[in-house]
Every structure is written in C-alpha cells, then in structure tokens.
Amino acid sequence: MFRTLLVFALIAAAATTASAANPTFYKDVLPVLQERCQECHRAGEIGPMTLFTYKETRPWAKSIREVVRTKKMPPWFANPNHGKFVNDRSLSQSEIDILAAWSDTGAAEGSPKDAPAPKQWTSGWGMPVRPDVVIGMKQPFSLPAAATIDYQYIVIPTGFTEDKWVQMVEARPSNRGVVHHAVVFVRGPADKWLRGEAKPFEPWSPPKTGADGKPRQGDIDGFGAEFLTVYTPGNLPDVFKPGQARLIKAGSDLVLQMHYTTNGKPGTDLTQIGLVFSKEKPLERIITVAVGNSRFVIPPGDPAYRVPTRFQVPNDSTILSFFPHMHVRGKGFEYKVQLPGEEMKTMLQVDNYNFNWQLSYRLAEPLKFPAGTRFEFTGIFDNSPNNPYNPDPKSQVRFGEQSWEEMSIGFFDLAVPLDMDRKSFFRRSSPTPPAPRAE
Ligand code: HEC
C-alpha cells in the first residue's frame, strides 16, 4: 500500500517536472493567468495591461517571473499559518514554478490546440452577473491637479418604495486614478446622520467606561448609518451566499464617502453602485461592524507600535470576513478571538499591510460565536524612517481621516437575525449575556 502511494507520488512529481521543464503559453501559462491574474489584468480593471493572448503576455514574461517570485503579484497579505480564506489569491509553489520556468525557457507559445476555453467575465463589472439596478452620482466630481481634498459625502436617494434585500453589490468609480476609496452607506429614512447638525464621524461607544469603571480602549463604530459596500483597489465586490443579504429599507438614501486623491492632472469621477437583489427573502441579514481605537498616540520613530482594541459581544452571531484599515504607517494587523472557556486564537494575521491594497479576507468557514465572546484587534504601525511610505518619522501620530494621520479599525462582516442591525448587535438582547464593553 505504502509502496503504491510512493510510486504514484513519484509519477506525479515526474509529470509536474516534465511539463514545467518546457512550459508553453497555451498549455501551462494561460490556465494560471485565467484563474489568478485576469480578474485585474483585463480591459476596464485595475491591472495596467491585459493578460489574455500570447502577444499581450510575451513582453511581460521577465516581469511576470519577477513579480510572482517576490510575491508582489497577485496582491495578498495574510500569513498562511492563520485562517483559510475563500478569496486567497496567493499562488501555489507549482503555479509560481510554471510561470518562472516559462520565462526562463524562452517563453514558448506552444499550440493553440492546448488552450483552455476562455474564462467568462462580466464586462464592466467585477460581479459574476450584471446588476439589476445601477445607482450613481448624478454630477461628476471635479478634481484639480494637486490639492488635499476632504472626504466628500454624497447623498443619493434610492427611490425604493419597498424594502430591498441585496445579494451582490459593487461600487465602481469611473476614474480609479483619483479614488483612494469609496465607502457606501445606507441611510434609513429615520436616520439623522448627515442631516442638520450631525457630523460624519462620531465614535459611537455608549458608556465611556467599562463595567469595571476603567476607561474603554475601543470605539465601537462611528457612522450613523449601515455599511453597504467598500471600493478599494483590488478588493472584490460583495457576493453573499443565497439566504444571506444586506437590507436597504424603503425610502433609504445611499451615502457615498469618497476619498479623492489628486494625481498631478485635473480629472473628474462619477462613481456608480451596482445592485443584485435576492430572489427570495433571506434567512440572515449581513451587517458590517467597525471597531476601532481612536485614542492612541504613536511615538516618533517607533518601528512597531501596537494599538489594540478589545471588546466583548453581547449576542450570538457568525463572523464571515475581515477588513483591516490603517493608513500609510500601517504595518500589520491581527484579529484574535476568544470563545467563552477557550484560548485566544488568531483568525487573521496580516504581516505586510499595504495602504494601497486594502482587502477583505473572507473566511472559508464562517465562525459561529456565542454571546460573551471576546475579540482583540491590533493595528501595528511603523513610524520609523525604514517605512518608505512614512511622510514624517519625527512626528507623533494621532487618529484622523487623512493619510498622514492614522486609523486602527477592524471592520468585519456578520450574519445576524433579519431584525438586527449594527447597533442592536452591541446591545444586550436577553438578560444573560454581559453588556457590551470595549475594555
Ligand atoms: C487584484 C488585482 C490584480 C491581480 C489579481 C493581479 N494583478 Fe498584476 N497588477 C495589478 C496592478 C493594479 C498593477 C500595477 C500596480 C502595481 O504594480 O502594484 C499590477 C502590476 C503587475 C505587473 C507589473 C507591471 C509593470 O508595469 O511593471 C506584472 C508583471 C503583473 N502585475 C503580473 C501579474 C500576474 C502574473 C498576475 C497573476 C499571477 C497578477 N499580476 C495578478 C493588479 C493585479
């Protein structure tokens, strides 16, 4: 039995080496490009060139070898020792070997007969299907060649006369060169957010002290509306499982928080949001929660300053995904969870956080957790001169919206009962669980 396995293993190894020794574009390289690269390297997406044909790909052979060996491409930052993620883009060693060997052996074309069937993409959208409805900015936003632009909050009425359950959603800027990020919120008809005196961001953290009387270390959320989706370069559209969806109540507005950055020439942007509705009423609602800490001071020069946020939840739920957020001094981010009676466990560890690639990490197996579960999210900052993105290693850095200020926010998506929202998730729903507190 053992011997048979060994023989099989040897044959398998020999087969891989044989095809990797003289790889051709159609037989060996194109399947990898389809599965791992065309998502971005196709017309209308963020990759600077398309990687479909031999003619398009051949000039990049050397460069492809370089970026896959150094793991610069595809962008993915999770430490593989913690957690499994459905959207893990990292290449296997054999995929890296194929691309590198192809480049090293003269980047042969091979025979088109060996090509896989072309992969189908939805043109103009990253979602697998075209949207049922597109809602967007009515007026383009104009940018000068150079300036610092405050976050723009753009309110767009949906005109929906009934509640809508959203199965997929994608935000698409028309000019990705100037959009650092777009966060899309749903403002319900009764929400006061951005009406009258209400400010865009007010850390929402009920009591200022925990049950033990000590000052709280975290701010639970800061926005007066529910999250719908986020656009950042390289992040995927939201596509939920059947039975799970986000809610847009009748009469809601979408509110876009746009972070525009100028890029040396004047330009305009018109961001659009594509929605695909659930065919049936879902069983669970998806909400996004943001938990952060806004009371830190990063000392000048510190190469690894840790900003932890600790909190406990008063309700049962299921965690689906994570989205760490820091600015240019962000170096790493950790999400840890401690189920009642168990050890603290790392669910995601991002080792080389990159401000230009803000990604969601979607759990292969969503984690159900009971009331009383503790979480610890930690942003790690490099304020030393060794950080090439650091605008000023001599400064003390505090919380703020602009890139030279910092944030340490752990976003995460939860599946909750249909009648629960972001705030009621943090409220005690029965007498037994402990009150919410970020300690
Ligand atoms: C999530 C989107 C995304 C995926 C997936 C992706 N790329 Fe890229 N790629 C980009 C973007 C954006 C750039 C330009 C910015 C940069 O270099 O970081 C880039 C740059 C490159 C470059 C350098 C181009 C230059 O101008 O020097 C190469 C080569 C490359 N990608 C190859 C690949 C290969 C091969 C794959 C698949 C194994 C891949 N990429 C997957 C988005 C992506």
Output the keywords.
alpha+beta; Jelly Rolls; 3 domains; ten-stranded mixed β-sheet; five-stranded antiparallel β-sheet; 6 helices; 14% helix; disordered N terminus; disordered C terminus; binds heme C
Rg result: 24 Å
> What kind of sheet is the major sheet?
10 strands, mixed
Which kinds of small molecule does this entry bind, naming each only once?
heme C
Distance between the termini: 56 Å
User: What's the number of structural domains?
Assistant: 3
Figure out the total of helices: 6
- Please indicate the percent range of residues in DSSP E strands (runs of 2 or more): 25-35%
Task: Characterize the structure shown.
The chain is built from six helices and 21 strands. The protein folds into three domains: 2-114, no CATH class; 125-188 and 225-282, Jelly Rolls; 283-439, Jelly Rolls. The chain has 439 residues and is α+β, with helices and mostly antiparallel strands. Helix 2 crosses helix 5. Mean pLDDT is 88; it is low at 1-18, 204-217 and 430-439. Strands 1, 4, 6, 8, 9, 12, 13, 15, 18 and 20 form a ten-stranded mixed beta sheet that branches. Helices cover 14% and strands 30% of the residues. Strand 16 and strand 17 (345-350) form a beta hairpin. The chain has helices at residues 2-21, 25-36, 54-57, 61-69, 93-104, 422-425, and strands spanning 133-136, 141-143, 152-157, 164-172, 179-187, 219-220, 226-231, 238-239, 244-248, 253-260, 267-269, 272-277, 284-292, 305-312, 317-325, 330-338, 345-350, 361-369, 374-381, 409-416, 437-438. Bound molecules: heme C. Heme C binds next to helix 4.
